[in-house]
Amino acid sequence: MDKFIAIVASLFYFLAIATIIPGLVNQTGIKAKAVLIFAATALLLHAWLLSDLIIHPNGQNLSILNVGSLISFIIGLVMSGAMLKTRLWFMLPVVYGFAAINLSAAASLPGSFITHMEDNLPLLVHIFLALFSYSTLTIGALYALQLAWLDHKLKKKKSLAINPNLPPLLQIERQLFRIILIGNLLLTGTLITGFVFIEEIFAQGKAHKGILSIIAWVVYTVLLWGHYQKGWRGRKVTWFAIAGAFILTLAYFGSRFVREFILH
């Protein structure tokens, strides 16, 4: 049953992608209502399957694939909501494709990492902040890539300015730094709750998460300082945003991947 739901959800994700891409390629209007219907259906099925995969009789199954699928769901939900206010067509095929792949992997490949959050509210708060900080900063990395791509094409005089499906460059830049600021605040909360509520955070097997998360926080803080105080823009901003997201990915998934797939 789980695999069937994953297939149907993935189908709706790809229908949304198929509705978007022709408009981007041909610079024609995109049927926003159709995209929204397909995406909303996919997200509802995604949420249904996640509840079945994560909620376990013995606790919560937070395997690496389930967490990855949950993060892709959060990103897809946020980006689909933002689609109603701004033109995000360039990024949505990547977001929906990523969600479909993660969902299919979580439903098809076995994995188990049982935890008990219902009896540990501080841990629940910490995990909530970690999930949303990572999701937000991943969205920031996607914005940075879109910003770099548009800037490159405009410099090459590819006449992107007349494409009605792409947002203005300055609008993307403002949204990028707003997203990174929110994500870094959430990451700050994640670090604080981790230090306060998680015992032996720098113990063997846990130290890399704390150290890499702190490094990522420094990267994003420097990026924000550089932009607001020094006027940083362009390629430097893109590299900082991608580097921060990459470091967080190593922090959140590095050791879990080794334990669940290599040493299992």
Automatic annotation (TrEMBL):
Entry keywords, A to Z: Membrane, Transmembrane, Transmembrane helix
GO cellular component, as recorded: plasma membrane
Transmembrane intervals: 6-25, 32-50, 62-81, 88-107, 127-150, 176-198, 210-228, 237-255
Molecular function terms from GO: heme binding
UniProt domain Cytochrome c assembly protein: residue ranges: 38-262
InterPro entries named among the record's database cross-references: Cyt_c_assembly, YpjD/HemX
Biological process annotations from GO: cytochrome complex assembly
Matching PANTHER family: INNER MEMBRANE PROTEIN YPJD
Name by which UniProt lists this protein: Inner membrane protein YpjD
Source species taxonomy: Bacteria, Pseudomonadati, Pseudomonadota, Gammaproteobacteria, Vibrionales
